[in-house]
């Protein structure tokens, strides 16, 4: 990191919102430097008094130093950007009006700064607060013009001050009106952005969740397993994979209707969520088939987990049109071998599930070790 980058991080921080606020603060500092430079040119030319300009310079430096500290501490003090804008806007109005009252014949040009202040505030303030700031500016400007009759009679000209006040009032009114419209547009954009964020979240949920069971879908599970495979460390406890298939699901649909079948799928999914650990993941793999991922789990512990789920489902009775429907499932369970690809593990689990169905359903066929051993040696697979 270069010295310039380190200095920027030190001054503005590394938070993007904080950097934006400090950037706005820096822009106002440049504007003040320009305005004060004009004042000091008038002092050197003898058109403005030194003492008030010195006081105004000290006020501007102290004020902006204070606002820098306030911005950097805004999170700790729970100060919203809108609140900061109100404080900075009022301070800027006070400084601008004070500068107007001590400048020479060219002081009318300083009133443009009032418009710049409102434009800056328009990006963060609501219309009501912008209008209030405009009223504050006009009121303070009017009082400053009247006070000049007594504090600087050599500069006071009623006709000139009336023209300045009328022009300032008209410009501030136009800017305040446009700012109100801008505030409405900003509120509309915020509402649209919120709706888009919610729609995106809903689309993402639909893309990764099964609508019927609310479980993760096949796409989500594939992405998860790919990530898990990529970060596996040699020597870690291997995960287990299991394919679960609801027994005789087609008969349930044919006998009791698809509504009953949907109820079975939902009940099965809820039972799984209630009986699995927080880091276990079960996804609807397709139809009545589900894929269970058990990270850092030995085969015996995985068998215990699935047996607990089977016991839970045995006690479950779904009533469909006055008929009690009992739910059971078959499972093919494997312990993923060291270096074994996820796809190969799923194929082994599928082979174990096929064996569980062939053996009569409502059972678990579990196997550990490498794929070839499991599929060719009967002693490696056990029916629980």
What is the compact description of this entry?
This protein has 384 residues and is α+β, with helices and mostly antiparallel strands. It has 2 domains: 3-203, no CATH class; 218-383, Reverse transcriptase/Diguanylate cyclase domain (Alpha-Beta Plaits).
Overall description:
The protein is 66% helix and 11% strand. It has a six-stranded mixed sheet with strand order 2-3-1-6-7-8, sandwiched between helices. The chain has a two-stranded antiparallel ribbon with strand order 4-5. A hairpin with a 2-residue loop joins strand 4 and strand 5. Helix 5 packs antiparallel against helix 6, helix 5 packs parallel to helix 7 and helix 7 runs antiparallel to helix 8. The longest helix is centred in the middle third of the chain and has 51 residues.
Number of domain modules: 2
Query: Tell me, what's the shape?
Result: elongated
Q: Output the number of helix runs.
A: 14
Radius of gyration, in Å, reads 37 Å
With strands numbered from the N-terminus, the spatial order across the biggest sheet is 2-3-1-6-7-8
Helix content: 55-70%
Q: How far is it from the N-terminal to the C-terminal residue, by CA?
A: 61 Å
Major pleated sheet? 6 strands, mixed
H-E string: HHHHHHHHHEHHEEHEEEHEHE
> What is the number of beta strands?
8
**Average residue pLDDT:** 81
Pairing-aware structural class of the strands and helices? alpha+beta
Low-confidence stretches: 370-384
* Strand percentage: 5-15%
